[in-house]
Structures are given as C-alpha cells and as structure tokens.
Design brief:
Helix content is about 45%, strand content about 10%. The chain is α/β, with parallel strands linked by helices. The chain has 2 domains: about 5-15 and about 90-210, HAD superfamily/HAD-like (Rossmann fold), CATH 3.40.50.1000; about 20-85, DNA polymerase, domain 1.
Length: about 210
C-alpha cells in the first residue's frame, strides 16, 4: 500500500475521459479562425502550457494576454457544449474518493482547465465535497510540463510536494508532477501502460476500481 499525505488529481483525462471532445473543439477553433493546421501538428508543436501560452503560439501577432484568453475561452465554451451530454466519471472514481475522504486524506485538483471547466465538471459529477482546493490553468503563469501548478496545489493543501501523490494521464502532466517531486499514478486514457511507466509513473491504472482497496 502506498503511503502519502495528500492526493492531487489532474482533471481532464484523469477524472473523466473527455479528451476527444477537447480535440473536436480545437479543430472547430482552427476552422473558425481559418488556421491551416491539422490536429496532429497542433498536438506536437503547440499543445503544451497554459491556455494563454497555447494561444500565443497559435496567434503570435497578438500580444495582449486578455485577448488571447478571450479567444481561448471561446474554444473552452465549445468543448463544454460538446461534452455536456456525455459527462461521465472514470470507473470507480466516486468510490475511491469516498474511501480517501473517510480517511481524511486532503485532496486537490491541478488542471490546466479554467474555472468554468472546473465548475462544469464538479457540478455534473457532484465533486465539491471531496476536494479541499482546486488549481486551474488561469491561476498559474507556467503551464504543464512546468511544475508550478502541482507546487501550487500542494501549497494549498499545506502538504510538502514530496508527500503528495499525483494522478495524471499526459506526458506533460506526468513530467510536471515529477518535476514537483511527486510520485505519479498514470491513467490510460491517452497512453498505454508501458508508455506511462516509461515516463516515470510508479503505477498505471485503467480506472479507479483497481484502487478501491488503496
């Protein structure tokens, strides 16, 4: 059994399997702004960091961060509308959170999603009672793979980063959590077990059912 003083979860692809809907909303954004860009190229060259950082790469002629955030927020609105009819927790999530809550384990969120996306998922899945704090991409200057968001989340929980266990699904997320000094459990919504283990995860799960006795 692993022993950690706090748990920190990414949201997209970790609590919910929603990355296909983010992909669709990105493609819609490219069409709306007539960007000659396919998703694979975007994912490889542009898709890392905060929403403002990503928008700055897509629209290098725009320097106003508020304008970049406004453009990005339109993409996030499209994502929420696309995903709204399909919101579903990854298997075993609520049972796992119930067990940790009964143990009084502090739990936090470290997601590059903004507050609207956090509120959207928390309301749909009734998660508010489980988490002591949330940290979104709008609250940090440097997005994943920079460790800032995990360090911030640990500080909010008043637990040293090395005493936190992180849950992540992406390369940038695992890299960020490890850079913050955390052990990481990988979730196979984006990558297979071998890839996540190669990235440095200490354990890999398909869903939370395997951790019910955690």
């Amino acid at each position: 059994m692993l022993s950690h003083k706090a748990l920190i979860f990414d949201m997209d692809g970790t609590l919910i399997d929603n990355m296909e809907y983010h992909k669709q909303s990105w493609i819609e954004l490219f069409k709306f702004h007539r960007l000659d860009l396919d998703y694979q190229t975007f994912d490889t060259k542009y898709h890392k960091g905060s929403l403002v950082e990503i928008m700055g790469r897509l629209f290098p002629h725009i320097s106003d961060e508020k304008e970049l955030f406004r453009i990005g927020s339109y993409k996030e609105e499209m994502y929420r509308e696309l995903y709204r009819p399909h919101v579903k927790a990854i298997g075993g999530l609520h049972s796992f959170l119930d067990i940790q809550a009964k143990k009084n384990i502090p739990m936090g969120i470290a997601t590059m999603g903004d507050q609207h996306n956090i509120d959207f998922i928390f309301e749909a899945l009734q998660l508010n009672s489980y988490f002591h704090s949330t940290t979104g991409g709008h609250q940090v200057k440097h997005g994943k793979p920079h460790p800032e968001i995990f360090l911030t989340a640990a500080e909010k929980l008043n637990v040293a980063p090395e005493d936190c266990l992180a849950f992540e699904d992406t390369r940038s997320g695992v890299t960020a959590a490890k850079a913050a000094g955390m052990n990481v459990i990988g979730v196979t919504t984006m990558f297979d077990k071998n890839t996540l283990m190669d990235l440095g995860c200490i354990q890999v799960i398909d869903d939370f059912n395997s951790l019910i006795e955690f």
